[in-house]
Amino acid sequence: SPLQGSSKPPLEVVVCDLVNASSCGNNCAKWILEIGKIQDITIRLGYEMEFEEPFEICIKNSGKVVHSYVDFLKEFQEVEIFEG
Length: 84
What we know:
Layout: H1 8-13, E1 18-20, H2 29-38, E2 42-44, E3 57-59, E4 64-66, H3 69-83
Parallel strand pairs: 1-2
Antiparallel strand pairs: 3-4
């Protein structure tokens, strides 16, 4: 399957305010971004998911908006260290 058994979380995004995407593999990143183009979504992410550029992601923990994977990694790690 294209989503490797992880098809439920992206479908829940449409009906829920917050989705735990930590159980999704990196192959879900494309679909999370696609859904985000249609509507604002909030996901909880416990690892550095590999989002393909270009994108616009707001890290709610810090309020910063990132547009590259390098910036995403930097911000993710800063927030993780701060909160961890």
